[in-house]
Write a structure and sequence with these properties.
Elements (H helix, E strand, L loop, with lengths): L1 H10 L1 H22 L5 H22 L10 E2 L1 E6 L5 E6 L4 E6 L4 E5 L4 E6 L6 E8 L2 E6 L4 E5 L2 E6 L6 E7 L3 E6 L4 E5 L5 E5 L6 E8 L2 E6 L3 E9 L4 E10 L5 E7 L2 E6 L3 E6 L5 E6 L5 E7 L2 E6 L3 E6 L4 E7 L5 E8 L2 E6 L3 E6 L2
Helix pairs in contact: 1-2, 1-3, 2-3
Amino acid sequence: WLKLFSRLQFLAGPAVLVMQTIVAEQAQRLREALATCSDVDLRSVVEKVARDLEVLSAGASAVVTADVHVPQLSSTACLLGHRGGVNGVVAVDAEHVVSGSEDRTLKVWNLASGKCIASLSGHSEAVTCVAALGAGKFISGSEDKTLRIWLNGQCLATCQGHTRPVRSVASLGSDMAVSGASDRRISVWDTESGENLATLSGHKDQIWCVAEVSEGRIISGSNDRTLRVWDVATSSVAFSSSCVATLEGHAHCVCSVAVLGDRAASGSKDKTVRIWSLNSWDCVAKLEGHLTYVRCVMFVGSRLVSGSSDRTLRVWDLSTSQCVGSMEGHTDSVACVAALGNDVVASSSDDSTIRVWKVS
């Protein structure tokens, strides 16, 4: 479809530009309808249709040509088993990954065999995110507004406090985690008891992503088009927090964030990836190439991998800000990317699969 739209534009530009406008308007109307829709299953369907329309609109607005100078990378494995889009994937040790899906389950996979070795149930709505906590333990977030902490196939604790769906979760050391949700709140949790230690407020719209910057510091990205950096401190008697920086530059919502050392990368619905200095708070690079919004980013050594609703992943050389690899294979939007070590990543997609890739 993308290639067809681009060719039509080249041959008969005005007609296709009208078509692009119509498609974009329909996507926007669906987005507006989502804001008032309370049916979770219906929201999932409408969200997918809106994303597909946005991909078609993007394809009509730019001549799509093959990246003849960019190596095309093939996946080395495809993990099948979920019955809905896979929203999150993370490595829990050197041999296993865990995925969370629209089908309301988490699955544990053996990387060597590509087989699912456990399927975990407990969430009452779609699983939206998952993060490793160390020693085989992990935490999941859901549309059901809760987070669950898991070990050896058992739910150890349920974290309750968010009033809207949980969108992102990240580990904070060995005994805490941080989550961001559609209620515009960031919550810090004790991963032993499930207790809510603190709630941070400041974003003006729902939060899509959170990550640890360093001990005592986190970063969040929001629908309000900004990232915020927070200092958090705990003691035996109190928990304190403060926003120390607001990073502005994206033209649309911030969908994803990753951190490596003194740099952060953010992916946005504005189709770009931005690299930020965590010392000066400046944007030091802007990476362009995806056709529609960037849902996930991950540092892999000296490179960055991004995944998009255009169904591809891209590998970026951070020293030159150039795309040095493209990964095609997913048949729907790429939702998440996770580093597995040794320049290997796993990606999850709305096509219900997880793929494994070698990026160098």
